[in-house]
Amino acid sequence: MPLLEVNDLTTWFHMRDGIVRAVDGVSFTLDRGETLGIVGESGSGKSVSCYSLLDLIPKPPGRIERGTAVLGGEVDLLRAPREVLRRIRGKRIAMVFQDPMTSLNPYLRISTQMIEPLLIHEGLGNREALRRAIESLEEVGIHDAVRQIDLYPHQFSGGMRQRVMIAMALITHPEILIADEPTTALDVTVQAQILELIKARQRELGTAVIYVTHDLGVIAGVCDRVNVMYAGTIMESGTVDEIFYNSAHPYTQALQQSIPSLHDKGKSLYTIPGAPPDLTEERSGCPFAPRCAYEEAHCTGPNYRGLDAFRGRHKTACLRVLEGELNLKEENR
Amino acid sequence: MSDGAVRSPFLALEDVKTHFPVTQGFLFRRRTGAVKAVDGVSLAIQRGEVLGLVGESGCGKSTLSRTIMQLLRASGGSIRLEGRDLCAVSMKQIRRERINFQMIFQDPYASLNPRMTVYDTIKEAIRTRHPHVGGRAMIRRVSSLMDKVGLAPKLMRKYPHEFSGGQRQRIAIARALAPEPKLILADEPVSALDVSIQSQILNLLAKLTRELGLTMLFISHDLGVVKYISHRIAVMYLGRIVEIGSPREIMEKPLHPYTQALVSAIPFPDPRLERTRRRMVLEGDPPSPMDPPGGCPFHPRCPFAEAACAREVPALKEYLPDRPAACIRIPEIHPGIGSRE
Questions:
Q1: Which residues 134-173 on chain A approach chain B with CB closer than 8 angstroms?
Q2: Is residue B67 within 8 Å of B74, Cβ to Cβ?
Q3: B48 with B248: CB under 8 angstroms?
Q4: Contact B221 A270 (CB under 8 A)
Q5: What DSSP string describes B70-118?
């Protein structure tokens, strides 16, 4: 049984000028201890789908329209009473955000913020909680933690703050860590440190990690499985090797081909024509069709069925690949 | 650069320093120190060359570009554009000459005036060079610029908010080209854009530099992006240039330990490579430019540092032809490579 099973998650924002279908029927599973990457460009719904799991969507205008998200085969996160959810958030599921400056409270000492989850979820006393907090700061590589823990967030650099965030998120030994662009605001040399750190702590604690990122390089380095999102839906889902070497969706391929670091100077970069679709418009069929090099009339027709099994657990939403009309490997030879 | 003759570079920086004073006290302000954002940079750019400048946040790359633009005045050194020292020119004169160097900024949402149509934005920039053009001739010029950057001229009466991020960056590029500048400074021009849009803008910039023979300083924190567009790359750390080389040399044979770490930290979108790759993970964060370490600015994080590294600031030396680097330990780290001086 998977640790987390998300089915048909649909989150819409009801705005004055229409409904933004930010997440539109997303289904995926997460196993114990595994690392799942959710990759997509801005507006693809990768963050909103994670926020929906923890009831962190501003309501209104947001509304979870449909779906279930079952944790450990017992609780549906989307329907759980507030009290139950409160006991899960920060205890069984923790989160690290992109910007460590805005996610730490600038008015409180690190110590106050770090022991909070222990006081709430584990009922520890102040002294014991502080001891655990210092220990977990040391575990994320902060030297002289006994002294550092009494400082305020602004006294730390960006990389150090992100370490604090990770220590704080893992202090209750959660089953799931959701990391939303955890290294996007950091320099590459610091990014490498933080990714190594999350990997090491994950191995020690057996935590399952969901990485939300736009960076395929990060995905390649840390993930077991990947969901590629576009326009609020999952376009392809598979192991990291399937996604990178055996991609079964034209969008995944286009995304990979447009990364500059893989190109030599002088050669033109591959570009995806056009722009992502307007999410307020009702869509029929494949949302990528207007920009797709392999689009045909039936891609936007009634036969389009969304994400479906391609080979074993490797899934794709491309109708032409599913119908066996299109072999992307052959096309690229 | 095919004529092979030695000629003076188009833009030459000589020991450029930009320091910001740090003051304390309210009534009696005292100077208590200085942030040495740019601290002794020497660089040369040839006509028609694209020089990439990479470095992490706070290394001084944006300050350097603003100093070249004379938006900040240098605290020391000289900046020669076609042989003339800009640092010695009065601010009044600079303002008149600024049409010769144009900037493209990171955030196309912030760098365009929201109350001006595309036409007005580009027209204003054209007028700086050609004050008397108007009417049909102006519309023709604006249309041709929009064409050049891949925007349909029929959109010229629209406002910035009606465009996507990528299109706005195209407008910003058209505006930068409008005064027919001699030098373009692009400060993180694609960092705010999504991957698929990023590649469109990079293609456009590469095409324009080729077709128009533009001279450009291209600044980015992303070595992958810089590598794609530049003829040469300069790597900056804490206010200094630590290494210069061609994109291939920098990526495949970095000399300076910092460049090595930077290259090795880039995550590659290739899982098999990522699994087998040995990564050089640095300790700690970049130090603050307000309180830089003595000696080589990189020595506290450098895996090859020894006592001598803390004593003096290493100079840029040519260890290989056209491959200057600032590290005294290069002959030991790379056996067979010695200083050529």
A1: 157-160
A2: yes
A3: no
A4: no
A5: TSS--SEEEEEETTEEGGGS-HHHHHHHGGGEEEE-S-TTTSS-TTS-H
Report residue B97 as tokens: 């000459």
**Does the complex come out with an ipTM higher than 0.85?**
no
Q: In what order do the strands lie in the sheet with B50-54?
A: B101-104, B183-187, B215-220, B50-54, B232-237, B240-245, B323-325, B317-320
Distance from CA of B337 to the nearest CA of A (A): 26
Q: Which residue of B has its CA nearest to A252?
A: B196
Whether omega before A61 lies within 30 degrees of 0, making that bond cis, reads: yes
Q: pTM to 2 decimals?
A: 0.83
CA distances from B85 to A202, B60, B182, B185, B248 (A): 56, 21, 15, 18, 32
**Could you tell me if A259 lies within 8 Å of chain B, comparing CB atoms?**
yes
- Predicted confidence at residue B193, as pLDDT, reads 82
What is d(CA A148, CA A164) in angstroms, rounded to the nearest whole number? 10
d(CA B339, CA B319): 4
pLDDT greater at residue B75 or residue B4: B75
**Chain B environment of A219 (Cβ under 8 Å):** 269
Alpha-carbon separation of residue A181 from A185, A215, A270, B190 (angstroms): 8, 9, 25, 18
